[in-house]
Task: structure prediction
Amino acid sequence: MLRPVASHAAALPSPLTDPQGRRLEYLRLAVTDLCNLRCRYCMPEEGVRRVDHADVLSFEESLRLAGVFCGLGVRKIRITGGEPLVRRGIVDFMAALSALPTKPEVLLTTNGLLLEQHLDDLVAAGLKRVNLSLDSLDPDNWRRITRRDGFDAVRRVVDTVLARGLGLKINVVALRGINDHELGDFVRLTRQLPATVRFIEAMPFSGSSGEFHAPLAGAEILDRLRAEFDLETVADTRGVDRLFRIDGHAGRVGVIEGHTRSFCSACNRLRVDTRGRLRTCLYGQPVLDLQELVRSGRTDEDLIAAIGAAVARRHVDGHAAALGTAPGTSMASIGG
Ligand code: SAM
Ligand code: SF4
Result:
């Protein structure tokens, strides 16, 4: 059984703050590179190269790291991947994270294929909100994008999650010429459903070095939505999404300008990938090998010092972080 870990993060100010004054309170923790879908914008048909089992952080190691990050002020941990629900033991791991001494909020990003069968256990483990990736409401188009079957299970879980009273955000990667004719359909979904639908700009993380076509920008998405709907800005949003409400709709809509990178000044995220490498920016390279530190017997104080030094070198924004790096890594390897 996984046990909560104590952390001793007295050596650095909490929360961790980067040179731009951004407080890093949100950790995205990838638990696998593997996935049961093959979304075209995320990975090639053959999938991503499998990380050697020995290189994947064990749940015990991840739990220790999470305890250290929580001691440094992280309040929110999002479990991501690849598809997190394909990893055995994931529910117990999430329960152990929720039970850490600082009681972080533990969240899940999933493609939904396996969600229904795990939902009761996840709720028992403390899950209150889900981010679900759903790129089309048309079964044939969904299959074209994901290159797999399973649309019905994913569409069904939207209703199941809401019926359980969980918060739901539906993430749609907006793809020109592929699903952009469905933008309005997604917005109409929020008439009845108290969910937030967010359109994400495609980013150059498809796992191949092939040409990356200019994405449908957030501004263009909003122009197109405004032609049909009266969008009213939700004033109190912070973070990476711009949110809107529509009179008479139970849910909300938003855009995430991940490619434009207009939100970097508010970015409070750290990422640890399946191998235990820390990224301080989605667009940058890994900046610290936490696996190596953990496996070479370093103390929590050593980890804290190394994390602090990495954060002190954090780039000012995603454009600066991307300088000199080649796009092409799969989002499933970075952890979304
Ligand atoms: N498998 C889970 C899922 O799809 O929700 C979690 C991992 S997935 C890598 C996390 C998020 O990254 C999803 O919302 C997915 O749509 C998004 N994503 C993947 N590749 C992307 C890309 N090239 N551009 C923008 N978003 C991407
Ligand atoms: Fe899998 Fe998520 Fe990537 Fe799609 S976006 S291939 S579901 S990891």
